[in-house]
Amino acid sequence: MEKRVGALLNCHLCVCGVQRRRALAQQRKIGDHKEDRTFQPIPRLTRSYNAWKARVKTDMPSKGCWEAVIGYADDPGVMPDEIEVRRRHRNNLTALTIIMRTVSDELINDIMDFELTDEAWTALEGISYKNSLYGAMVKLKDLAL
What we know:
Layout: H1 2-35, H2 49-63, H3 67-70, H4 82-102, H5 105-111, H6 117-131, H7 133-144
Helix pairs in contact: 2-4
């Protein structure tokens, strides 16, 4: 009888221990998101490029990757060290991921081959310009000449 009670108690403790570890892991996951309560997902770029651009421009600096878009302010003739190169590569990937996740599927095809964030950003600006009302007016003017 005592062996059965002991076995049940050990089994219960084991189950409770697993449940407790799962609960702690879940709290850690939730805790990571509690720190960034201002996070709002960026809507996908479909029509309003300027609104999308404003949202991305405010989101990227908070993630420390805006320099991947605008470029790094290096002194001429000074090469960044290996740690800085890794940081820049990581920032480029983060920024490119943000862009890829927030553009429509139609635009993904236009930028999917770019490896640098500033190239993808410039391409999106160009596509937006071509698709804008002003871009259409320029095309009409060129056709009229």
